[in-house]
């Protein structure tokens, strides 16, 4: 992605990049509403890193490698120890230099409170860049990176599909609706949310996995100071609007039924 | 007061903004409030002209040379100033890519709740309750802004309201708000919007589409679906992850960031049915979906829900079709 930058190696700026990586239920996990009807039953859920966050991490690692000047990538996550530990380990194994874990067992809150908690704990780090995913695959507000940017006085952009680091600024190609794009230029410090597909996320190497154990992982106790501004009332299963015919059972039956529909009902084959 | 903010899309009122007008008017009538419509940013004056028939109490113009090109800094500053000036109870917009880009900044600047990507509204007495999809559309949640907030920001998912429901009748008044911006307010700059050269196939004219999702598991299995498509005389399409992983070219992608299609038959294989995919194919006349998860959201819009393993069904069906 950065290939066309000429003389990149001579770049003098040493960058500090944070990547927010959230633990979310994997897409195969069964999602069941728990007895409080406010959250899901986590005991049957396998937590993995949010999809766009892994693209964000890859983008940060590629920038660091390209700069090759001692720039730093820090993975940051918030949540409970049980759900997030794999996400941080994975980030370190892929090549992040250190990790910050904002521990909070009860994140029953809204995006703005979450962003405030991130901001309080990241402020003193003075990151040049904060990368996040464009939205989480669980609650999906799509707000956190931009909120943090505003709270920390950074410039912001969303849905980054290409980046280009230049002296003291970053150019971001933003995805717009239905196949349109736009380049924006942001001075550092900047908070940029990353869209899936921007690069090819790497797998951790064995060496990376071994090395991760020796890397610094800082744990901070995240205390929410504000009451949430949005109240989460309940979770529910959406109702089906359409009358849907179910086709299930043994494979031969399914195929015969499909053949009948294609031929006689929809007439797409003769 | 309910403040609906219009967005420019290449010279016209954005389709999502029209739906936002309908959403704002509906909220207003339920809550006994007035609607004001704000035209700001790029092309504001023309938006105001285009919005003149919408029924509203006030049609507000807030323009400035420095917002003739979009920037998150400029737009969030202008909207924040307008909110301080007119104190609306709700600010209503469509959940567009631009809204994702700047509205959270208004939320953080003014310390206001922002309920994003709303699919429907119900009422608990005089208090609106907003529903959003969560966990990739497998579940939904009801959200209520805290009563301590004087203003709540709202963005509505496309098709939550229809622009056909817009009440016409024009506005009772028109006003112009002074906007003050200086160089320090805008740190970022933007270049003109552009389209990537459209290459490949035009899926919009296809009669039958076989569309493949992440359930296919690996690139090695793509030929299996290609054979099915061939046997049905169909074009092949896909969800975004399949393109992101490089298994199919990007012009095959259906959804909000790909093509919108409405074939006679959309045959979906291993696609979960996330909203960003569904917006691109829900206009299909017939939808058959294969998914091993009985609760996959794609089944909510499918005519035929095939619950089973695509790895078994697809080859068998292809074989049958080839006979
Ligand atoms: C009743 C209830 C219970 C909850 N319980 C939990 C819980 O146990 N664990 C939990 O993690 N969340 C929990 N949450 C959710 C938490 O409040 C949300 O993470 C927060 O509101 C951010 O919103 P979002 O997920 O929609 O983020 P979005 O704005 O959609 O996220 C965008 C990006 O921001 C970054 N990001 C967001 N949140 C985090 C995070 N926590 N760590 C690292 N990066 C992040 C990621 O890069 C992500 O891609 C709960 C919420 C409610 C209402
Ligand atoms: C701003 C934005 C824009 C986006 N634009 C688009 C877009 O244009 N198009 C798009 O598609 N997405 C888009 N997305 C992504 C979207 O949110 C979803 O992540 C995506 O559509 C999921 O793709 P999927 O259904 O293939 O994968 P998943 O959600 O991972 O679903 C895979 C499905 O396959 C099923 N499955 C697995 N194995 C089998 C098997 N053996 N047999 C049968 N079924 C099986 C699973 O049960 C699951 O339901 C966008 C997201 C954002 C935030």
Condensed summary:
The complex is a heterodimer of chains A (270) and B (323). Chain A has 270 residues and is an alpha/beta fold.
Description:
The complex is a heterodimer of chains A (270) and B (323). In chain A, helix 2 crosses helix 5 and helix 3 packs across helix 4. Chain A has a 9-stranded mixed β-sheet, sandwiched between helices. In chain A, strands 2-3 form a two-stranded antiparallel ribbon. Chain A is globular and about 70 Å long. Chain A has 6 helices and 13 strands. Chain A is of the alpha/beta class and 270 residues long. The N terminus of chain A is likely disordered. Helix content of chain B is 27%, strand content 28%. Chain B has a 9-stranded mixed β-sheet with strand order 9-8-7-10-6-1-4-5-11, with helices on both faces. In chain B, strands 15-14-16-17-18 form a 5-stranded parallel β-sheet. Chain B has a two-stranded antiparallel ribbon with strand order 2-3. In chain B, strand 8 and strand 9 form a beta hairpin. At the A-B interface, helix 3, helix 4, strand 7, strand 9 and strand 12 of A face helix 3, helix 4, strand 7, strand 8 and strand 9 of B. Strand 9 of chain A pairs antiparallel with strand 12 of chain B. The structure holds flavin-adenine dinucleotide (2 copies).
Could you outline the blueprint of secondary structure elements for this entry?
The complex is a heterodimer of chains A (270) and B (323).
Chain A: E1 16-20, E2 23-25, E3 47-49, H1 51-67, E4 72-79, H2 81-94, E5 98-103, H3 111-122, E6 129-133, H4 144-151, E7 155-166, E8 169-175, E9 180-187, E10 190-194, H5 206-212, E11 216-221, E12 230-236, E13 245-247, H6 251-265
Parallel strand pairs in A: 1-4, 1-6, 4-5, 5-11, 6-10, 7-10
Antiparallel strand pairs in A: 2-3, 7-8, 8-9
Helix pairs in contact in A: 2-5, 3-4
Chain B: E1 2-6, E2 8-9, E3 12-13, H1 15-31, E4 35-40, H2 44-50, E5 56-62, H3 72-86, E6 90-94, H4 97-110, E7 114-124, E8 127-134, E9 139-145, E10 152-156, E11 171-176, E12 189-190, E13 194-195, E14 208-212, H5 222-232, E15 235-238, H6 240-244, E16 265-269, H7 275-278, E17 286-291, E18 304-307, H8 310-322
Parallel strand pairs in B: 1-4, 1-6, 4-5, 5-11, 6-10, 7-10, 14-15, 14-16, 16-17, 17-18
Antiparallel strand pairs in B: 2-3, 7-8, 8-9
Helix pairs in contact in B: 3-4, 5-8
């Amino acid at each position: 992605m950065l290939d066309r930058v000429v003389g990149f190696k001579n770049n003098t700026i040493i960058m500090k990049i944070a990547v927010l990586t959230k633990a979310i239920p994997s897409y195969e996990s069964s999602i069941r509403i728990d007895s409080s009807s406010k959250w899901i039953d986590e005991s049957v859920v396998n937590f993995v890193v949010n999809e766009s966050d892994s693209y964000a991490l890859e983008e940060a690692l590629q920038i660091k490698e390209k700069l090759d000047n001692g720039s730093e990538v820090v993975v940051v996550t918030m949540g409970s120890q049980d759900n997030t530990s794999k996400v941080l380990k994975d980030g370190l194994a892929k090549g992040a230099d250190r990790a910050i874990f904002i521990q909070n067992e009860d994140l029953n809150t809204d995006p703005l409170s979450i962003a405030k908690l991130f901001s309080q704990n990241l402020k003193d780090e003075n990151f040049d860049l904060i990368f996040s995913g464009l939205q989480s695959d669980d609650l999906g507000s799509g707000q956190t990176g931009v909120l943090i940017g505003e709270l920390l006085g950074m410039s912001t952009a969303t849905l980054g599909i290409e980046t280009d680091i230049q002296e003291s600024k970053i150019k971001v190609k933003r995805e717009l609706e239905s196949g349109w794009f736009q380049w924006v230029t942001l001075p550092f410090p900047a908070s940029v949310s990353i869209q899936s597909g921007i690069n090819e996320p790497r797998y951790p190497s064995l060496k990376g996995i071994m090395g991760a154990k020796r890397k610094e992982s800082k744990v901070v106790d995240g205390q929410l100071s504000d009451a949430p501004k949005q109240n989460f009332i309940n979770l529910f299963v959406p109702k089906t609007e359409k009358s849907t015919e179910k086709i299930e059972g043994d494979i031969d039956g399914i195929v015969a039924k499909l053949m009948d529909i294609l031929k006689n009902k929809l007439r797409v084959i003769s | 007061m309910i403040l609906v903010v219009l967005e420019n899309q290449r010279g016209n009122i954005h389709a999502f903004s029209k739906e936002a007008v309908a959403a704002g008017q509906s909220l207003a009538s339920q809550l006994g409030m007035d609607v004001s419509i704000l035209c700001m940013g790029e092309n504001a004056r023309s938006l105001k002209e285009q919005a003149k028939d919408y029924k509203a109490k006030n049609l507000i113009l807030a323009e400035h040379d420095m917002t003739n090109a979009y920037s998150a800094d400029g737009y969030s500053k202008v909207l924040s100033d307008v909110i301080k000036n007119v104190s609306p109870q709700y600010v209503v917009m469509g959940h567009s890519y631009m809204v994702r880009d700047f509205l959270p900044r208004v939320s953080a600047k003014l310390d206001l709740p922002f309920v994003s990507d709303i699919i429907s509204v119900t009422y608990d007495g005089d208090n609106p309750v907003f529903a959003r999809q969560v966990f990739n559309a497998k579940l939904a949640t009801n959200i209520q802004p805290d009563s301590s907030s004087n203003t709540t920001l709202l963005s509505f998912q496309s098709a939550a309201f229809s622009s056909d429901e817009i009440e016409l009748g024009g506005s009772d008044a028109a006003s112009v708000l002074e906007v003050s911006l200086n160089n320090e307010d805008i740190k970022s700059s933007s270049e003109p919007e552009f389209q990537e050269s459209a290459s490949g196939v035009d899926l919009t004219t296809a009669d039958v589409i076989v569309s493949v999702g992440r359930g296919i598991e690996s690139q090695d299995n793509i030929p299996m679906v290609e054979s099915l498509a061939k046997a049905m005389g169909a074009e092949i399409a896909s969800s975004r992850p399949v393109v992101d992983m490089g298994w199919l070219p990007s012009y095959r992608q259906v959804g909000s960031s790909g093509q919108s299609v409405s074939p006679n038959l959309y045959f979906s294989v291993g696609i979960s049915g996330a909203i960003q995919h569904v917006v691109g194919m829900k206009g299909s006349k017939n939808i058959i979906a294969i998914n091993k998860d009985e609760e996959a959201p794609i089944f909510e819009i499918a005519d035929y829900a095939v619950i089973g393993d695509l790895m078994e069904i697809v080859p068998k069906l292809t074989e049958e079709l080839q006979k």
